[in-house]
Amino acid sequence: MKISTKGRYGLTIMIELGKQYGEGPLPLRKIAAENDLSEAYLEQLVGPLRNSGLVKSVRGAYGGYMLTRHPREISAGDVIRVLEGPIQPVEGIEDEKQPQRELWVRIRDAVKNVLDTTTIEDLAKANNGETESYMYYI
């Protein structure tokens, strides 16, 4: 499975919003500037995140975006599914012969487990140096 820039930058948005959780809205231009990303591209990504209910927008001079739930309640898997679609290592798993199908299902389940058990709070804390780095075994 390959995560595109949509998923990577979407996680960046969510991590930055997670760091600011409870402190009010954060403008995308600030996220873009601090991470050396295109603000226009982040605007494209935040739409699906807003439509899915993961973030909300606040208008006005001090507006921006905020998480709709606590960062510990949002998983990396939630974000990746919104921006990338279903988590699958290969297309058409059901058409594969039994040994290959079993391998692809095990890989899919391992990736899903990592994404679904890693929260935005975990990533925000790791990004701030508050926790040790994660070692994932798949």
From TrEMBL:
The organism's taxonomic lineage, starting at the top: Bacteria, Bacillati, Bacillota, Bacilli, Bacillales
Gene3D superfamilies linked: Winged helix-like DNA-binding domain superfamily/Winged helix DNA-binding domain
Source organism per UniProt: Planococcus wigleyi
UniProt cross-references to SUPFAM superfamilies, sorted A to Z: Winged helix' DNA-binding domain (SSF46785)
PROSITE patterns linked to this entry: HTH_RRF2_1, HTH_RRF2_2
Keywords: DNA-binding
InterPro entries associated with the record: TR_Rrf2-type_CS (IPR030489), Tscrpt_reg_Rrf2 (IPR000944), WH-like_DNA-bd_sf (IPR036388), WH_DNA-bd_sf (IPR036390)
Pfam families: Rrf2
NCBIfam families on file: Cys_reg_CymR (NF047409), rrf2_super (TIGR00738)
Protein name: Rrf2 family transcriptional regulator
